[in-house]
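Lab notes, practical 5.
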Amino acid sequence: MFRHLIIEGTKYRTLTTRKHELRTKWVAPQPKELKSFIPGTIIKVSVKPGDKVDAGSLLLIFEAMKMMNQVLSPFPGVIKNVYVKEGEKVPKGTLMIEFE
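Output from the prediction step:
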């Protein structure tokens, strides 16, 4: 399938493969979303929606590969929603906490 690309004002015509068309599209990171970095189990959730947190505040404890990982707030903010509960098994990339 042919595609047209415009790079710095110059129009190019190129052929793409089926594999390229079916690939998983890249999505820009969302800084206000906290996703699981590896599969694991939620041991403890320390926040609830509406809580104000500082940078470095404990958000939850996540067990993965027999290790307890403390997940800390990357920046100060307000918790908009918590999508996980204690004891829940989550795969990689699961949205766990959302900030306002």
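Observations recorded by the TA: Residues 8 and 57 are 44 Å apart (CA to CA). The two ends are 41 Å apart (CA to CA).
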